[in-house]
Structure to design on (167 residues):
């Protein structure tokens, strides 16, 4: 009986980890979409780049405040690619109008709030930002507002840890 419970627990734990995205590195970059301006986006093509996935909404004040900082990160670093996932029920034209005032230099994709991309999960808070390593591993999930400096610090720490592990 104890052995059966242990196996059942291990199976439930593994299922929970897979559902949360842990260990599913290939899945994190498996995302194709069309942004709100009609450009095709395929995150599988991001070789050697850090990926920043930012869940946001037009009504979210902290989300609006992040846009200039995230745009500068996207523009200034060739090793970082950022994508904004608009998580709200809104028409594409309304997002385009919003972006005339709040200019994002990175692609914005409108996602279905009832079926968001499974590999990133449903955000509990907006904004939520997921940092994915060039190897496709979830490095960190920031819940709440994030700055360029926070993301760059996380990248620097990960890179120094990776280089410290090499002989």
């Amino acid at each position: 009986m104890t052995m059966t419970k242990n196996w059942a627990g291990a199976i439930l734990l593994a299922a929970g980890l897979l559902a949360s995205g842990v260990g599913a590195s290939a899945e994190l970059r498996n995302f194709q979409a069309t942004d709100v301006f009609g450009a095709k986006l395929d995150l599988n093509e991001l070789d050697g780049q850090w990926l920043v996935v930012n869940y946001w909404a037009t009504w979210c004040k902290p989300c609006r405040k992040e846009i200039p900082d995230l745009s500068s990160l996207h523009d200034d670093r060739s090793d970082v690619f950022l994508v904004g996932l608009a998580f709200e029920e809104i028409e594409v034209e309304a997002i385009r109008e919003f972006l005339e005032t709040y200019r994002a230099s990175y692609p914005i994709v409108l996602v279905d709030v009832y079926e968001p991309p499974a590999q990133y999960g449903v955000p509990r808070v907006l904004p939520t930002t997921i940092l994915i390593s060039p190897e496709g591993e979830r490095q960190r999930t920031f819940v709440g507002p994030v700055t360029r400096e926070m993301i760059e610090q996380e990248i620097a720490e990960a890179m120094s840890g990776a280089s410290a592990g090499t002989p």
